[in-house]
């Protein structure tokens, strides 16, 4: 009996030692759960019979103007509406190769009716537009070519002096650009805990594709990964910086020939820095499950059904469980305006 007790004691000592060893491998803090979880039901579906969207991907709202970005529309990438009554104003950003047309649209940022910024990654430029409610038209006012050192920029934020853009070389986290699109600073590095992955920076950059949001009022920049469950926060005013890993950790992928092939889970779809907290749309479905559903002929909803809420330093506050899968996110007061593909109307209000 004494021998058994002694062996049992040694077993738990070993388990505890292993756990300590495992936790010591972590460079960055983890969050496991949220203190509060709320189930949220749609308050209102918003659409217009005269406007058809194929893939309502992003939304931005500023004062009396709302704009939706349609990722796969045949004619125009963008459509302007009045807010809050959602009356159509005009489509703009015509798809095409002409001088006033755009090849792609990845992100829309509204500063004012005459300062609407659109990222065209295929042309490596950011364009400025002006929308007139009275005339029901949009004019292209300015084109900003992006620095040639940048590699296929897929997200950006507007600042008072220029832009912040994500990095896809694998060498940095983001770049600070001036008003003419030239790199002024290159900040940070990909916070992987596996240094061997840096041997192929192009693949690492692909796997760590990041969505970003910046709030000029509090000067907080948040980055979230499309794979895995990684949140990174920079306060550009105070210098505060943190990296957080959720239960699914950093992006998981295999690589071959400088290309990344996703494994693990689909992570975040969108992030929004508000005045007092950070919202992030989370998917969480594994690629194994996606493949299995495809093989069984089942169709998975596109987007995420979870909205994670953090404070401005990354402390988990609450998790919202939605009744629709969503992509884009905009905040007005206490209401969340989201874009959805699993619904007849492009905008879902929570």
Topology summary:
Blueprint: H1 2-24, E1 37-40, E2 44-46, E3 56-62, E4 65-70, E5 76-82, E6 88-94, E7 107-112, E8 115-120, E9 125-132, E10 137-145, E11 156-158, E12 162-166, E13 174-178, E14 183-187, H2 201-207, E15 210-215, E16 220-225, E17 230-235, E18 241-245, E19 253-256, E20 259-262, E21 268-273, E22 277-282, H3 287-295, E23 304-311, E24 316-326, E25 329-332, E26 335-339, E27 347-349
Parallel strand pairs: 1-24
Antiparallel strand pairs: 2-27, 3-4, 4-5, 5-6, 7-8, 8-9, 9-10, 11-12, 12-13, 13-14, 15-16, 16-17, 17-18, 19-20, 21-22, 22-23, 23-24, 25-26, 26-27
Organism: Phocaeicola coprophilus
Protein name: 6-bladed beta-propeller
Pfam families: TolB_like
The global form is: globular
Largest sheet: 5 strands, mixed
CATH class equals: Mainly Beta
Helices, by number, come to: 3
Beta-strand content estimate: 35-45%
Organism: Phocaeicola coprophilus
InterPro entries: Quino_amine_DH_bsu (IPR011044)
Protein name: 6-bladed beta-propeller
